[in-house]
Fold this protein.
Amino acid sequence: MLSAKKSSLKRSVYEMPDFVVAALREHQLDEAYRLRPPYQQNDYIGWITRAKRDATKQKRLNQMLSELKSGLLYMNMKYTPKHRME
């Protein structure tokens, strides 16, 4: 699940697990996810996959999906997108 790669900023780069891909497709949020900056995409995946309990992973996944759907939050912080989904 986790990649051993490091970015030039020495941050871990996380691979997206299949259950996240499936959830994005199911909720038709692939594009909203893709439009987020790479650091946000990576932060979401790392945050979700680091959870030990499945219930916590699901709760974090649901928060990400909700934030992508609204387009106004990132990790419970205000987010102003550069690109608007029409």
In short: The chain has one domain: 2-6+16-78. The two ends are 33 Å apart (CA to CA). Residues 2-6+16-78 form one domain. The chain has four helices and four strands.
